Amino acid sequence: MDASEKGRVEEEVKMVVEQAKELQDLAAAFIAKTSGEEQSIRQRAATLDSNIRRLQSLIHSLLEHKLLDQTLADKLNEELQRARFVITDGEASAFLPSKAQGRFLRMFLGPINVRASKKDIQLKVKEEYNSYRDRTALLFLLFPSALLMLRSWLWNGCLPAFPVQLYQAWLLFLYTGLALRENILRVNGSDIRPWWIYHHYCAMVMALVSLTWEIKGQPNCAQKQRGVQLFLQWAIMQGVAMLLQNRYQRQRLYTRIALGKAKRMDVVWGETAGVDGQLWLLCPVLFIMQGFEAYVGMLLLKTAIVGVVSEWQVIFCGMLLVLMAVGNFVNTVQTLMTKSRFKAKMKKSKSKQELN
Question: pTM score, two decimals?
C-alpha cells in the first residue's frame, strides 16, 4: 500500500469519526426536543383526565341534589365518556399517567417499565394474551381428560404420581404466565378486575403446594385419590367454560369496542357475559363450576379431618379452593348486578326519550 492510499484511508476514517459525532449530536438534540414536547403533552393529558373526572363528579353531585335533569345528566355523562374513550383508547393514552407496577411484576422482571409507548404495541400485547388463553383453554380441557381416561384404561383406576405432578407443574406455569400477562395489561390500560389476578395468585400457590403433595396409591387407591379425581373433573369443566367464553364473549367484546362502549385494551374477564343468550348459556356453567370447586375443596378438608389423607397440603389446597370458589361467586354476582342496573338505566333513559 503506497503513501497516497494510506492517506486516503486515514481521511475516510476521520470522516467516519466526524460523522459519528455529528449523528450523536443530532440524536441528542432530537431527544431533548421530543422529550420537552412529550412532557408538555403528558401535562395536557393529565389535566384533561382530571377535568373529566371533576366534571363527572360535579354532575353526580348536582343530580343527587336534584339541581340537574336526569336526561341532561345522562347526555353530559355520555359526552364525557366519549371524550374519555378518545384519550384512553387512542394514541394519547400513552401520555396518560400509568398505573403503578405491582410487586409481582417487580419480583419477576425487576424495575423495568412495561408500559408500551405506542397503541399498536399495546394491542399486540392484548392479542398475545388472547392467543395464550386460546391455547391454554384447549390444553386445560385435554390434559385432565387424558389423565382420567388413562386412569380407567391403563392404570387400573389408580393414578401414578408422576403424570399428576407433571400436570400440576403445567398449572403452575399456566397461572404464572396468565398473572404476568394480566399485570402487564393493567399497566397498559386494560380493565381486568384485581380479583381475577388475585385468583391466579391463589392458583399459583395451590399448584406449587400440590407439587409437594404425595400422591397415595394402593391400598384403597380410589378413596385416597378421590379428591384428585374430582379436581381433574372440575378442571375439565373449567376448560369447557374457557372455550365457551373465548368463543362467544370475545365476539361481543369486539362489538362493544366498535360501538364505543369498551376500550380496545379491554379483555374478556373470567365472569363476564355478553348478550342475554350468552347469559343463559354461560352463567349456569360458571355457577355449577364454582359450586363444584367449593365441593372439591370441602371434600379435601373432609379427607384430612377423618384421617384418610392427613398431609398439610390437603388442608391448604382445600381451603384455597373454597376461598377461590367464594371469590368467583361474589364477583360473578356483582358483575351480573352491574349489568342489570346498566340495562335498567338504559331502558329508563330510552323511555324518557320516547315520551319527549
Answer: 0.73
